[in-house]
Design a protein that fits this description.
The chain is α+β, with helices and mostly antiparallel strands. Helices cover about 30% and strands about 25% of the residues. It is built from six helices and twelve strands. The radius of gyration is 19 Å and the shape is elongated. Residues about 5-25, about 250-260 and about 265-285 have low confidence and may be disordered.
Length: about 290
């Protein structure tokens, strides 16, 4: 996702938070704590293994933008991973993962499976082995309220074609320094630039990465294909698009606002998301 758009997203959420309640992490978008009959109690071996795993993920984020780990044995095994967005440096990645591991431990106490979406990273853990497995739920999307101008012409078709091309190209990057991450900027009619960004977790094979991105794009275009920008996070991939006129300043005006929604069960209104939901409920669009 373009850095300027991320800064704007954080600005909107920070303003909203100040109108509602304070939270520990302004980068936090959404946390999902999965309900399960396997959920545990405090001070179990599983919880101790989870604490170790989250600490290791936090430390490893200083050295890589992706890392996965398995800790424990048999029924006390914990699998975990983090993924930082391809446009952030090590310092930002480490800060995001550190905050995410703190938030997920606090908000999902005694849950054996959880995932957190922050602006710059995803952190996930489970007692089930999920690496290499394609999953599309839970998802989280956010979009602008501003509609695509009529002067942009057949924007929907251009978006579909360009994102489809970017998805195919990204599937060839499984062994790159930042696997499956690709950003493309294309100018149309000397009128506007379309920025397209995709990324998958490196544990997926190219075929599953492509499938994940196509499904995410389908959901994003169905909800937000007529907006000037939008992005979606799923457990295995991220898709983002943005439009801007190069003659305009890169940051949109502060008055511009956005809508967000989620898909999947076991949603936890943790931290910032609760504040946003309280303050912008009239604008909230649920899918």
């Amino acid at each position: 996702m373009e850095t300027t758009k991320k800064l704007f997203a954080l600005l909107c959420l920070f303003v909203t938070m100040n109108q509602a309640i304070s939270v520990s992490d302004p980068d936090h978008m959404e946390t999902f704590c999965m309900k399960s009959s396997r959920n545990t109690k405090s001070n179990t071996t599983y919880n101790k293994n989870l604490k170790t795993l989250l600490s290791t993920l936090s430390n490893q984020s200083s050295f890589a933008n992706y890392y996965n780990l398995t800790t424990g044995l048999a029924s006390e095994t914990v699998h975990g991973m983090f993924l930082c967005t391809g446009d952030v440096n090590r310092t930002t990645c480490n800060a995001c993962v550190k905050d995410a591991t703190i938030e997920i431990a606090k908000n999902c106490t005694n849950h054996r499976e959880a995932i957190i979406y922050n602006v710059d990273c995803i952190v996930r853990y489970s007692d089930k082995f999920f690496l290499t497995t394609l999953e599309t739920n839970p998802s989280y999307w956010w979009s602008s309220h501003d509609l695509i101008p009529k002067s942009f012409g057949k924007f929907g078709q251009r978006l579909s074609d360009k994102m489809g091309e970017v998805i195919v190209r990204s599937s060839l990057l499984s062994t790159s320094f930042t696997p499956y991450y690709l950003m493309d900027t294309t100018r149309f009619d000397n009128l506007y630039d379309l920025e397209s960004i995709v990324q998958c977790t490196p544990d997926l094979d190219p075929r599953n990465c492509t499938t994940c991105l196509k499904l995410a794009l389908q959901e994003l275009t169905e909800c937000c294909g007529n907006q000037v920008w939008a992005f979606i996070y799923t457990p295995n991939c991220m898709v983002s698009f943005d439009t801007y006129n190069s003659s305009l300043p890169p940051l949109p005006p502060p008055s511009r606002s956005g809508s967000f929604s989620h898909r999947g069960n076991n949603k936890l209104f943790g931290g910032m998301v609760l504040a946003v939901a309280v303050s912008v409920f009239p604008f909230l669009s649920l899918v």
